[in-house]
Design goal:
The protein has 95 residues and is an alpha/beta fold. It is built from 2 helices and 6 strands; from the N terminus they run E-E-E-E-H-E-H-E.
């Protein structure tokens, strides 16, 4: 695997939120999340748990993993080439 591999999950809202509805800049498995269960908010939000599980698995295997707002201008370039922190970066660890 290439050491510069990036996995990017796109959302229709900004980042991942904690239990106090604040943006989580860096996510690790021990963070407490907001709305991890399915709730109505612009449709179903239940897909976040699946995104986080997949992102953690990828991060545990050495991929740089992000969950970000899909309509951010030049997102991939800004994250991968300009090293901007946009959205939530998911860090691996013991599952």
């Amino acid at each position: 695997m290439c050491k510069d591999t990036i996995l990017l999950f796109l959302r229709d809202v900004d980042s991942v939120l904690d239990e106090k509805m604040r943006i989580i800049k860096t996510y690790t498995q021990d963070k407490k999340l907001a709305q991890i269960k399915k709730t109505k908010h612009k449709g179903e939000v239940g897909g976040m748990k699946a995104k986080l599980d997949a992102a953690l698995r990828a991060a545990n295997n050495g991929m740089t993993t992000w969950i970000s707002y899909g309509r951010t201008q030049n997102l991939l370039t800004r994250i991968s080439l300009q090293n901007e922190h946009i959205g939530t970066k998911v860090l691996g660890g013991a599952l």
